[in-house]
Design a protein that fits this description.
Blueprint: H1 8-19, E1 24-33, H2 38-50, E2 54-58, H3 65-71, E3 77-81, H4 105-122, E4 127-131, E5 153-154, E6 166-167, E7 172-173, H5 186-201, E8 208-212, H6 219-232, E9 238-240
Parallel strand pairs: 1-2, 1-8, 1-9, 2-3, 3-4, 4-5, 5-6, 7-8
Helix pairs in contact: 1-5
Organism: Rhizobium lusitanum
InterPro entries: CE4_u4-like (IPR049591), Glyco_hydro/deAcase_b/a-brl (IPR011330)
Protein name: Polysaccharide deacetylase
Length: 248
């Protein structure tokens, strides 16, 4: 492990967990996979190098056999449903959303049904019946309609609330979507990680989800993922788990 000084707050918090004989549950989600790319290769190599399981949110509409063939040998990868085409249907002045009520509900649900079936067929051993809504947004009215199609969980962003379906959320987004569209500064992300760990130490049992977007990573983003894995993989106080472990 290197002597990265900016990671010291995380090391200190993990030392507290180790002293208490406790382990924090982590999981990793990367969004927007469609086809094999050098960026995806880079992400998968990090998964292999540090033995970290990953959930890939695959966009069903445009994806196909090439990605399935690329992932077939990746035993640490779980495939989840990322909407249908990741298309925005919300008005210009509002937040982007594919899974809202801007279209007839029956059309939205039909797309989610088709996406489920397509990815389940492409990934017979790696598919997990979890929906990752594009932009982490889905209208609440759709949630009760998902389980009849076979969905067992939804993953959005933030601490999970009560819902008619299991929520396995992410809590750390490494990207700066409103600035340079690269990775956020590491110090702030480390601070967020420590906040989430303190929340869990005080009683919240929710697994901590880290979210990335491999197609738009810059050097800052890639550097954070590698440093995070180097600091945490194999640590006595951390368990990187496959997301399927958290489905009830």
């Amino acid at each position: 492990m290197s002597d990265r000084a900016d990671w010291q707050p995380l090391r200190d918090e993990l030392r507290r967990w180790t002293a208490a004989g406790r382990k924090a549950k982590f999981w990793f989600r990367d969004d927007d996979a469609i086809e094999p790319t050098p960026a995806l290769d880079r992400l998968l190599s990090l998964s292999d190098r540090f033995d970290v399981p990953m959930a890939l949110a695959v966009i069903p509409g445009p994806t196909g056999e090439p990605l399935a063939e690329r992932l077939a040998s990746q035993s640490r990868v779980t495939v989840t449903v990322h909407g249908w085409t990741h298309q925005n249907y919300a008005p210009d002045e509002t937040k982007k959303q594919e899974l809202g009520l801007h279209r007839p509900q029956a059309i939205v649900l039909d797309e989610l049904h088709r996406g489920f079936d397509k990815l389940k067929a492409l990934y017979p051993s790696q598919f997990l019946p979890m929906l990752v809504p594009p932009w982490n947004r889905i209208d609440d009215a759709l949630l009760p309609e998902l389980s009849p199609f076979g969905y067992r969980a939804v993953s959005v962003f933030g601490l999970a609330k009560q819902a008619p379906i299991t929520l396995v959320n992410t809590h750390i987004d490494i990207m700066n979507w409103h600035g340079v569209r690269g990775g956020l500064p590491h110090a702030g992300l480390i601070g967020r990680l420590v906040e989430e760990l303190k929340n869990r130490f005080d009683g919240n049992d929710e697994p901590i989800g880290v979210m990335t977007h491999h197609l738009v990573h810059d050097d800052v983003a890639w550097g954070f993922v590698e440093a995070l894995f180097e600091e945490t993989a194999g640590h006595a106080a951390i368990e990187w788990r496959p997301v399927g472990n958290f489905l009830s």
